[in-house]
From TrEMBL:
InterPro entries: Amino_oxidase (IPR002937), FAD/NAD-bd_sf (IPR036188), Flavin_amine_oxidase (IPR001613), Flavin_MAO (IPR050703), TAT_signal (IPR006311). The lineage of its organism: Bacteria, Bacillati, Actinomycetota, Actinomycetes, Streptosporangiales. Residues 30-470 form the Amine oxidase domain. This is Flavin monoamine oxidase family protein. Belongs to the flavin monoamine oxidase family. Its cofactor is FAD. The keyword Signal applies. It comes from the Bacteria. Keywords: Oxidoreductase, Signal. Pfam families: Amino_oxidase. It comes from Actinomadura violacea.
Length: 474
């Protein structure tokens, strides 16, 4: 019966088109778009091939179901993130301060407490472990100063630091359970992996990278709201930056055009995508190493690059938001920021629009928390998210007008988020292959950036770096 139900002649697939370009850029995330912009400005002919139906990749305006959106991926920008700041300015996208007035919530061992964010030492959680924590963070900060930004494998102690996980280091350098919890939370909130998943050297490079050419990276700049990476947001949402840049680039950006294979030959390459085959002099692969590994490269890439792509996994993350008539937690004297050791959500932020015309609470379902919800229905994810919000902000949190969430680990073209991380042994064994071109194939993506790797700023920097590299090679 199944066979009989089929039309006698299957509709013909649309004929694949052929094209030529100086440079094919694979991926219209911020890194690919930034590269395209500079290469076009340098007079090169460029095609950007994007698998999704939209630009932005890990930057995404998540639909709330009422015609508006909330940031479902990257959201915040902070001091020293100069390249995303410059790009946003050029695109006419303004920023505003993340809501940060009042007290934060700390939930640990079944006890909820509130703590000031404007003390002399900044926002310090009410846990005896913080003394221990501060000592450990000072040590980390000082070790990070010995890491050459973007080339951690060249640190004098690279082998020693890359032979252990962050978990091993944090357990040998802190005694209290509070400090250990907060160090795990530092890794979870910045990379969305567990401390035992990631190399100490990778963490030190992440710290070193949280700065710019004139300001050394620091732990505070990574984790702080005021003065740190979470300081500001974009008016209209971060997706305005890639959406406007892609619109300026026009029809050189092709959507629903997943690249399946890249064949290199005699100095150039043939890029086969859904519905389009392009002969190009150079190819820029602008995405995380793990997702680049899904492309079929022929002939095989050098082993160091091929194996790097097998060894650089993505974190697991989901962003959950609930919309309320008002940001009611503000009236209760709260910032909307919470840290928790239990429940589905381990960190929250006030995601309300700048005019506070409605309240939006955002929670991160990080690493193991979201994996526990593998196979959960949307209603179950929603119930778990609202239960966490109620623990932090009271019963009012149980009755939102609407909710929405974005699971990045279920996204075929991201494979997780926010960033690809290196387990022990990878940076020292394979790190050089992150940026090294393979013949006509060049690599971009935030994972390849020196400063602000893992962030939008790192993505833009990597695009600008690869554009120079490719232009010089032609
Ligand atoms: C939940 C979450 C929260 C975050 N929060 C922040 C934050 O607050 N601040 C911040 O600065 N950063 C944040 N980030 C990180 C930030 O989103 C990334 O660093 C940045 O967007 C990466 O850009 P990219 O261009 O390197 O990669 P991507 O954005 O991943 O772009 C890669 C592109 O390639 C496309 N693609 C993949 N495979 C193919 C293929 N075979 N063919 C064609 N196209 C393909 C993808 O669809 C995608 O568009 C967050 C990320 C997540 C997921």
């Amino acid at each position: 019966a199944r066979t009989a139900a089929r039309p006698a002649t299957a509709p013909a697939a649309p004929a694949a088109q052929n094209a030529t370009a100086d440079v094919v850029i694979v991926g219209a995330g911020l890194s690919g778009l930034a590269a395209a912009r500079d290469l076009v400005a340098a007079g090169r002919s460029v095609l950007v091939l994007e698998a999704r139906e939209r630009p932005g990749g890990r930057v995404y305006g998540m639909p709330l179901g009422d015609g508006t959106t909330s940031e479902g991926g990257a959201e915040f920008i902070g001091p020293t993130q100069d390249r995303i700041a410059a790009l946003a300015k050029d695109m006419g996208v303004a920023t505003y301060l993340t809501y940060n007035s009042g007290k934060n919530v700390y939930y640990r061992n079944g006890k909820r407490s509130e703590y000031a964010t404007d003390g002399v030492l900044g926002a310090v959680p009410p846990d005896w472990g913080v003394v221990d924590l501060e000592v450990a963070l000072l040590k980390l900060g000082s070790m990070a100063k010995d890491v050459p930004v973007g080339q951690p494998w060249k640190a004098a102690k690279a082998e020693e630091w890359d032979a252990q996980t962050f978990y091993t280091w944090s357990r040998s350098n802190s005694l209290s359970s509070g400090a250990r919890f907060l160090m795990d939370e530092f890794i979870s909130s910045t990379m969305s992996v567990r401390s035992q998943d990631v190399s100490l050297l990778y963490v030190l490079n992440y710290i070193a990278s949280a700065g710019n050419e004139s300001n050394a990276g620091s732990v505070d700049r990574l984790i702080d709201t005021k003065g740190g990476g979470q300081e500001s947001r974009f008016v209209g949402g971060s997706q305005e930056v890639p959406v406007r840049l892609a619109a300026k680039l026009g029809d050189i950006v092709r959507y629903n055009t997943a690249v399946r294979s890249i064949t290199t030959d005699g100095g150039g390459a043939t890029v086969v995508a859904d519905g389009l085959t392009v002969a190009a002099k150079r190819v820029v692969v602008a995405m995380s190493p793990a997702i680049a590994g899904k492309i079929d490269f022929s002939p095989a890439l050098p082993a160091s690059r091929a194996q790097l792509m097998q060894r650089y996994p993505m974190g697991s993350i989901c962003k959950f938001v609930a919309v309320y008539d008002t940001p009611f937690w503000r009236a209760d004297g709260l910032t909307g920021q919470a840290v928790s050791d239990s429940g589905a959500i381990d960190a929250t932020f006030d995601n309300s629009p700048p005019d506070a015309s409605r309240g939006i609470m955002m929670g991160f379902m990080n690493q193991a928390n979201i994996r526990k919800l593998d196979g959960a229905s949307a209603d179950e994810v929603r119930a778990a998210g609202l239960a966490s919000f109620a623990t932090f902000y009271g019963d009012k949190a149980k009755s939102p007008v609407r909710t929405a969430f974005q699971r990045w680990d279920n996204e075929i073209w991201s494979g997780g988020g926010p960033v690809g991380i290196a387990p022990p042994g990878v940076l020292t064994g394979f790190g050089e292959a992150l940026r090294a071109p393979c013949g006509p194939i060049h690599w971009a993506g935030t994972e390849t950036s020196d400063y602000w790797t893992g962030y939008m700023d790192g993505a833009v920097r990597s695009g600008e770096r690869v554009a120079k590299e490719v232009h010089a090679s032609l």
